[in-house]
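All the exercises in this workshop are built on plain-text protein records. The record below serves as our worked example for the rest of this section.
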Amino acid sequence: MKIYLAADHAGFGLKEEIRHFLVAEGYDVADLGANRESRDDDYPDFMRPVAEHVSREKDAVGILFGGSGQGEAMVANRFPGIRAVVWYGKNDRIITLSREHNNANVLAIGARFVSAEEAKRAIQLWLTTPFSEDPRHKRRVDKIDN
């Protein structure tokens, strides 16, 4: 599985820490920016390339980092086949349900609301939780994608 990462200025520090963590865990990671912290950047510029890759590549997923994660997910969800969800801490059940029921392929994290340790735990959970393959969930995901 290829993991594409992106962040704006608000998520830059967390993305950097998560990138190092994922590489150390043995994941195949591509960092699509930002490559420096700049308050003048615009999050769509970094989120769009991740969504494009995940939309085209069968076994790819994306992890986006922004202040709230909301705008990041909105950008990603504009692309065919993308099912981006937002997580900003506390409830890990959101993480598992996003994979089990919705087969989410992009996770947008609200960096202003979570610690690096919380994000690491949630990302590991998200990456290792499979889609349930339950016919009702498959039917619903098909309706989203079509």
